[in-house]
Design brief:
The chain contains 19 helices and 13 strands. The protein is an alpha/beta fold and about 475 residues long.
Length: about 475
């Protein structure tokens, strides 16, 4: 260890360490049980307390109660304070308490509808452990969000109401800025040590791009995951290791509930562009539904990065996605949501086609297309897959041989006496060509005798449509017999 000052504090104080990263349950009651297990693990880490002659018989009984898994909320609220006091009595020294990922329970409470209960519980845990605790030497909390210290009428009660004597370091602060991830020099040494210098550009493209207090850093977890792959697997391609984390649930919620402006801004981000937004320092999860606060959350949790400061007084910044790994997360979540919209609108779309409701079918398909993102490749393969997705509940044949050729999509009825639908697709290079291409698609259906081919197979009632696409818009043309 190269820091002499740090060495003077090594092993000087008892340390209580706990992480709340696994408190991801869907009910408050389950969360209390999980916290109880965390306290059991802390008691297990200090067997010297179980029979300490420096503790009273009442304290020893309380230790036994926690060791057996206390379930009462009031007991759990004072558990950290009690353990710290026991350690001080046993060792004669004050205690350092380190709480990692303190905001994970809040995020899950916010998503599952028991936010107030969780805030009240953790506020009391932290207040007793970190404020009204004469056994405390120092407390350290780490998490994604810089949570508001005090309550406001808009935010409701804050987690840290009443805790005033603490210092907050965020991604904008220069203190320990190089400690939050790997710096470029550390990446160079890592790649050199494992003879992986040839992957330097790949690592930078996928996992670099974060900034803490003006210091550029890489995502350490993803870098190490990729290094492990390089060393122990024949697969050398990078991937979005972040895509498998549960933190993406809240991003999916934002995409799902986004208004048109917000969805358009997500489109800009996923396409590699920048947006300009005010960033709020102090947040509570209750404020996260406000559209501008969403971007503060995305910044603090690593889904965006600051490109530049537009107005320091107003705290307005240009923001963009930091790297390819996070871009994949956005696109994956957007695609999942978009596929859901496609499937949900399928029955209405098919029924409109069967009823020859061209305006209704066109309006619905344009609405679905508008909800896609510009990152998608708007080629015939994309549109073909889109329509197949909308018809997934039906008997659909792709590239069905019929007449003198093969039609793009054919929706066959279960009964040959019911109505079937035949579609021919075209993709325009210019929006002004949509009408012309839709008419060409209809002409192809007629010239290639697609409908006659189906009728010869016993399908008597067939309607045909030519559909022309250009990016997020389309025109549907009915084939007139």
């Amino acid at each position: 260890m190269s820091n002499p000052k740090a060495l003077t504090y090594q092993n000087r104080y008892p340390v209580i360490f706990l992480t709340l990263k696994d408190m991801k349950n869907n009910t408050f009651e389950k969360q209390l049980k999980m916290f109880s297990k965390i306290i059991v693990n802390i008691i297990e880490a200090f067997p010297e307390l179980w029979n300490s002659d420096k503790l009273s018989s009442a304290s020893l009984k309380t230790i036994e109660m926690y060791h057996e898994g206390a379930q009462e909320e009031i007991d759990l609220q004072v558990s950290l304070q009690f353990i710290a006091q026991c350690l001080m009595q046993h060792y004669g020294k004050k205690v350092i308490i380190i709480i990692d990922e303190y905001d994970v329970p809040l995020q899950n409470a916010y998503l599952n509808g028991y936010y107030d209960d969780m805030v009240n519980f953790l506020r009391n845990v932290f207040s007793t452990a970190l404020k009204t605790n004469d056994a405390l030497e120092k407390g350290v909390l780490t998490g994604c969000l810089r949570i508001a210290k005090e309550s406001t009428p808009q935010a409701g009660f804050s987690l840290f109401t009443g805790l005033n004597n603490f210092k907050v370091n965020s991604i904008f602060d220069e203190v320990s800025r190089q400690r939050f991830g790997f710096t470029q020099s550390e990446i160079d040494l890592l790649l050199q040590a494992y003879h992986a210098e040839e992957y330097k550009a790949v690592v930078k493209e996928w996992y670099d791009g974060y900034e803490f207090g003006g210091c550029d850093v890489y995502n350490p977890w993803s870098v190490l995951m990729y290094m492990d792959r390089l060393l122990n697997s024949s697969r050398k391609m990078p991937e979005s290791f972040w895509a498998n984390t549960s933190g993406n649930d809240i991003i999916y919620r934002y995409v799902k509930e986004a208004n048109p402006l917000m969805r358009e801004e997500f489109d800009v981000l996923a396409s590699g562009g920048m947006i300009e937004k005010p960033i709020k320092d102090d947040l509570t999860y209750r404020e996260m539904d406000q559209i501008n606060n969403v971007y503060s959350f995305l910044l603090y949790t690593g889904y965006l990065k600051v490109v530049s400061c537009v107005n320091e007084e107003e705290k307005r910044y240009r923001l963009m996605i930091p790297n390819k790994e996070i871009k994949r997360v956005y696109v994956s979540i957007f695609r999942e949501w978009f596929d859901e919209q496609v499937k949900n609108n399928g029955a209405t779309f098919v029924e409109a086609l069967k009823q020859k409701d061209i305006s209704g079918a066109t309006e619905l398909l344009n609405t679905v297309l508008f909800q896609s993102i510009s990152y998608f490749d708007y080629d015939e393969k994309f549109y073909h897959g889109l329509l197949l997705g909308m018809m997934s509940e039906y008997q659909v044949v792709s590239n069905q041989e019929s007449g003198l050729g093969r039609s793009d999509i054919t929706l066959l009825p279960i009964s040959r006496l019911s109505r079937g639908v035949l579609l021919e697709l075209k993709v325009a290079k210019r929006e002004e060509d949509l009408q012309k291409l839709a008419e060409q698609a209809c002409k192809q259906i007629i010239d290639m005798k697609y409908m006659e081919g189906l009728q010869r197979k016993g399908y008597e009632d067939i309607v045909g449509y030519g559909i022309a696409f250009y990016k997020k818009s389309c025109i549907i043309q009915y084939v007139k017999k």
